[in-house]
Amino acid sequence: MRILDAHQHFWDLSANYLPWLADKPVSFRYGNYEAIKRDYLPDDLRADAEGFELVGSVFIETEWDPADPLGEVAWVERLRQREGLPNVMVAQAWLDRDDAPEVLAAHGQASFVRGIRHKPAAASSPDAVERGASGSMGDPNWRRGYGLLARNGLSFDLQTPWWHLAEAADLAQACPETQIILNHTGLPADRSLEGLAGWREAMRLLADNSNAAVKISGLGQRGKPWTADSNRGIVRDTIEIFGIGRCMFASNFPVDSLVGSYHTIFSGFAEIVADLPVEERDQLFWQNAARIYRVEMEGVA
């Protein structure tokens, strides 16, 4: 099975400062994450993906030292030259900071940077959403930075709980020239009937905008192993809502190694969509990622 992994991370903890991995533990949706406090580099990804045809990857920023948002780009460039992975990256930027114009301009000049990720401030539950909260997608300072993405040729990777997708839809409409790529399937952690109904409604709001796509990833549940049966409905609902052409499968490795092996996750995706035509499966596993992230696939037919 051919894979262009649309969302993965590398880190060298002996050389680089990632506060959430180096300092005291943070609140994390999968619970204890001690197991991933170790170096993770291209050879590790290739070993995890053994048995699949890994044709490339999209590196997503790792919450690198926020005082040095350009440092990760320089490190990834050296990694690419030495290891052949990743193909492209989504870099760090803080859209509501005073240095946003300079940082985004620098990212736009890097030949392998395709977009940025800045996790907006989020409420802890649907009933706690505060429109226009500081650091949120409704914050004027945050939106001012967001408005600079298109002129620098950058897309936006959005990681936020589903109850903020109405704000994301508004953002998509306000800046139709900017591609939004929703991370981790909108984080449907609440698998109750009510929770899933709210998630589906929110996903439809975002999907109504043609400049929005989604990565089907990050589907682990705290304290439970990743299984195809537990995630089948979410995967198929996402494909139905966004359409084949705007969905991408991704590993979120090494983070999702906390809930399942690479083989478990991608074999699970394959099982869930086994009834689809091979052309549609190719779109989900690699072609859409290559198109949306503008990855040159030399020698791949």
TrEMBL record:
Residues 5-294 form the Amidohydrolase-related domain. It holds the Pfam family Amidohydro_2. Gene3D superfamilies: Metal-dependent hydrolases. InterPro entries: Amidohydro-rel (IPR006680), Metal_Hydrolase (IPR032466), Metallo-dep_Lactonases (IPR052350). GO terms for molecular function: hydrolase activity. Belongs to the metallo-dependent hydrolases superfamily. This is Thioesterase. It comes from Devosia geojensis.
